[in-house]
Amino acid sequence: MGSGEVPHDEPSAGDSLPENCRVIEIHVAELKQLFNAIDPSPFREKDLDPRADEFIVSWARDLPTNATLALLVYLDRPVGMQEEVAILRDAIHEYFSQRAIASRRRLRQLFRLGRTNLFIGITCLAGSLLLGDAIASALHGSRAGELLRESLLIGGWVAMWRPMEVFLYDWWPIRSEARLFDRLTVMPVRIALTGDAASEAWRWDWPIASPTSTRAQASRSGATGAGSVGRSSQDRGRRMMFGPSRDRLRRDDV
After folding, report:
1. What's the predicted TM-score (pTM) here?
2. Type and span of the H or E element at 56
3. Would you say the C-alpha torsion 192, 198, 204, 207 has a positive or negative sign?
4. Confidence band, pLDDT 50/70/90 cuts, at residue 41
């Protein structure tokens, strides 16, 4: 969504979309399809489904680095609990927060490895220079001595290749990744209701729903989510879809 406009065409609930935000759109039949089914962690700490993770991250990478991000989940059932959107937002934010922490940990490990490699490289370079000079002096300037000296010098500089690669090239993609995850950690999350599923459908979808929750709670929750949200004309054709019977990802072509 390029301008953050909110046309009144679909009921929705959740965070308001900022002006000029860029919306990442996902369409699911059930909210549990967004999360990894084999992850035994508590719901707020669950990993996202790998396909959902890849879709969100790849879309965010395609957007400008200074763009404000937002996530819009199209859901084919009514909202079941008043706190449902907040729980979903917290779970997604926690997931990307952990990914940002993991990326920065990987960056620290890379710099630690780079420092070790730098020490080894400098040692090898210094040793090859000293050894080359000693051999050249011992052979009294013969061509063989010069050849050995130059070979050792080249070997010393080759030993510097890895630390130079770390400090010149390897670190900045990881830092960019961590910054991207930071942006995803604070993005607003909104649910747009697109289907006419049974009002009790949320009971077998939402993993933390109480079996004693009343139908009145679900209807009140639906009333509080009577806001609306529109699809961006420029991003409308790019939406992740999970079918209700087959967990299959596809992108609509509108």
Report:
1. 0.71
2. helix 50-62
3. positive
4. confident
The domain segmentation of the chain, as residue ranges, is 11-101+187-251, 106-179
| Sign of the torsion angle spanned by Cα atoms 32, 33, 38, 39 | negative
Phi and psi based region of residue 20 (left: phi greater than 0; alpha: psi -120 to 50; beta: remaining)? left
| Contact status, residue 24 vs residue 56, Cβ threshold 8 Å | yes
Q: What type of residue sits at position 86? A: A
First-to-last CA distance in the chain?
15
- Name which of 126, 127, 128, 146 is nearest 136 in CA terms: 146
> pLDDT for 179-201, tens place per residue?
999 999 999 999 888 765 445 44
Q: CB under 8 Å, gap of 24 or more: what pairs does 50-54 form? A: 51/240, 51/249, 52/26, 52/240, 53/95
Please classify residue 1 by burial: count the beta carbons closer than 10 Å to its beta carbon, then call 0-12 exposed, 13-18 middle and 19+ buried.
buried
